[in-house]
Design a protein that fits this description.
Elements lengths: L36 H6 L7 H8 L3 H9 L2
Helix pairs in contact: 2-3
Length: 71
């Protein structure tokens, strides 16, 4: 599969399979720009599943839900 993300778009990928996955990333310039990750990740609409964020940030689900409530 190939995925192309527009400039400035916060994105994530999760391997839902049971075998290892490989990913390659490339940027279109030396200056990728600035994005406010906390606001974009915890304040996304629709929200990202708390269980997935808990695993990604190595936090418990309660903490993730508290962070999401602030955005």
């Amino acid at each position: 599969d190939v995925f192309v993300f527009p400039e400035g778009l916060i994105h994530f990928a999760a391997n839902a399979g049971h075998v290892p996955a490989v990913a390659f990333a490339a940027l279109g310039s030396q200056n990728p720009g600035t994005t406010f990750v906390a606001e974009t990740v915890f304040g996304s609409n629709p929200p990202i599943t708390p269980a997935l964020l808990a695993k990604a940030f190595q936090l418990n689900i309660t903490t993730i839900m508290e962070l999401q409530a602030k955005f």
